[in-house]
Amino acid sequence: MIENIIIGLIFVGAVVYLVNIVRKQFAGKASSCAGCAGNCQVSKIEIPIKD
Q1: Which of 30, 44, 47, 48 is the most buried (most CB within 10 A)?
Q2: What's the pTM value of the predicted model, to 2 decimals?
Q3: What pLDDT does residue 51 have?
Q4: pLDDT attached to residue 7
Q5: Alpha-helical regions (H) of 1-51
C-alpha cells in the first residue's frame, strides 16, 4: 500500500515537472518583453578572446 503511494507521488511530481517545463517554454518567449511595448533591446554577451 505505502509503495503505491510513493510511486504515485513520484509520478505526480514528474508530471508537474514536465508541465512546468512546457509552460516556461511557451510563456517565457511571450512574456519576456511584455511590458516594453516593442522597445526591448537584447544585450549581447561578449566573451573575451585571449591571444
Answers
A1: 30
A2: 0.50
A3: 64
A4: 97
A5: 2-31
The cell 508541465 sits on which residue? 19
Residue 24 is placed in which grid cell? Answer: 516556461
Cβ proximity of 40 and 33 under 8 Å: yes
- Tell me what pLDDT residue 10 has: 98
Cell 507521488 maps to which residue?
A: 9
Please give the C-alpha separations between residue 29 and each of 2, 23, 32, 45, in angstroms, as whole numbers: 41, 10, 6, 19
> Rounded to an integer, what is the distance from CA 30 to the centroid of its chain?
12
Alpha carbon distance 16, 22 (integer Å): 10
Distance CA 20, CA 15 (A): 9
